[in-house]
Amino acid sequence: MSKDLAGILKSWEVKVKKSPAFAKKRAVGMFTTTSVAHVDEEGCETEAAAELVHVENIFSNGDIYMGQWVAENCPHGSGKYLWADGCMYFGEWWKGRMNGRGKFSWPSGATYEGRFKNCYMDGEGTFTGSLNHTYKGCWVMNKKHGKGSMSYANGDHYEGDWRKGLYDGEGSYHWNNGHRYTGQWKKGKMSGNGIMVWANGNRFDGSWECGFPKGNGAFTFEDGSYYLGVWGKDQKEQHVNFYPSNSTVSHDDWDPNQLFLFEMSECVVYAAESVSEYPSDKVFSWSSSDGKHQKQPVRMNSKNENKGRRHSIDTFGSYELEKTQKQGVTICKGHKNYELMLNLQLGIRHSVGRPGSPKPPDLKPTVFDTKEKLWTRFPPEGSKHTLPHQSCDFKFKDYCPSVFRTLRNLFNVDSVDYMLSICGNEALRELSSPGKSGCFFYMTSDNKYMIKTMKKAEVKVLRRMLPSYFQHMKSYENTLVTKFFGLHCVKLSGSSQRKVRFVVMGNLFCTDVPIDRRFDLKGSSQGRITDKPESEIDANTTLKDLDLNYIFRLQKDQFQEFYRQVNTDCKFLERERIMDYSLLVGISVQACNQDLSADEGGNIELDSCGSSPRVSSADTDASLDPTRWAPIRLGVNMPARVELTVRSHGNQLVGEPTQEFYNVILFFGIIDILQDYDISKKLEHAYKAFQYNPTSISAVDPIQYSKRFRDFIFSVFKEDG
Asked: What is the pTM of this model?
């Protein structure tokens, strides 16, 4: 090692040792050798052994790397990386990524030692925080997930199941004061059946909700006397009876409410230490062996590749990845649809605010009756049931209100929040252009809901399939099918008596994460390419099947869930004779290839290795902290990789993989589910089948459509092996 490098390392080590946590823990020097195992990747040893060299690199930003290096100009094998901010990783690398066994240290003194995958803490590992909290167990994508135990500095201890960083499943929590709980947890709180035993021998055995007894249960004193019945924090819900034992001890002075006011006050679950920055957040600056920083050019839009393509969508560098602006035009006074918007908001406010049953009713077949609709007249001066308003005289129709109220409850939509989103002080936004069907789309100011104008035929389809749609949504929590929250109609006054029908839907892309690419995928090729010139394509442009130059790679468990749900949803749509639906996919680029710049030759340069993953800096204050980051579920906030593909001819649906990967966050769902195979679609199929290959057109029988759709989706979504 050179004297200069040794001096820099010495200064860095002194900087870390100055941290209070480091001194407190008196840990062994951070440069001591850590034993590491072989990298998981198949064939990696034989593939790279001949090209490995040992390097000691100092980068222009102050970072340092020492260890094995591969000809692709990145770490591969065993190596140590020191960031200028004091973080350090020592362990195994695979083509520029922390992969295998390793140890990551923070300047605060916190450490993680265990398995890494694609720079994420993933697998078995031990995290010791700066406050001496220690977690040992399973990790998935930086989150505690699976079996694990947590020991807190105050003496508390939890052992059991984890999910997405929180206690979830079966587990046991022991407090330092001698109390202990054993039972079920949900999202970090005692929920389900469980037993709490206090240090004084008293115990509660029964049902829990959100950390407190709720429902049937028994509170038993040490002498055997007990209260039995239904428990709840609200005294109106609580009905318990006392059953004395043969003991001479009297419990007359004990009130059941003390269970909540006193006993439970001593059983506060300790909050885990949050991590400000994860290993996957770190950015690498690879360089040549002479220590001079170099940018790595990534070939873009080669003229010899993809001949016949009208525009290049070869990589994420084709367009500038800027902060996405809100879509559409705000509907202000003077806009042609201003009164229509007011009418819709007034009607929905009245509909949602109408008194209903406090709990979701057991829906009877009659509530799905297509005749079940409520007309309400809204005169400007107001009426017995409506308030005065500044719009025109109109009527508002509410279709199957009981069904949609129950669906909103099923989707955990709070009625007040729902009204504020649609009918609050902020105006709706009208998207710039109508869809292919001629319908218009409106977006709420908070981006939670999208309102679409509908044709009468679409309303009939939704009303026809509503019973089976309701059952499907009730049966499959992770369904990818569009969520509908309400179906309405506004009948305008005047000679025209025009009716405008609306459906309220969830917005798939309601997220603070910027959506850099969006695709509408059907599995057909005829006409499935964007007709915009390249100069007009931006992050809000919806691209199509022949524009897609990626394969999406999901983790094994996520892919299996995705595979099952797509099959289930398609079978449902097939039974309802629905076709022409699509999978809408939003991609947020999270890898270091966010930082792109183009040279004069049309190449895109990356400031670091294109395969190195990190979460977008614009959105990483919350990062992967479960308490602040939106939860991961199927189709929402799903970390994944995409692999760049290249087509050999213009109509090839799925290109050939190139082994060039990008780390992304995915959002997706099945949309446009209200087109049945009616006479117009049958005529369209007959007409286009004469002109084009019948298998390439969108208008086909629902059974054939479902099979083709699934075949295509499963060819572009793969398990990340």
From this structure: 0.54
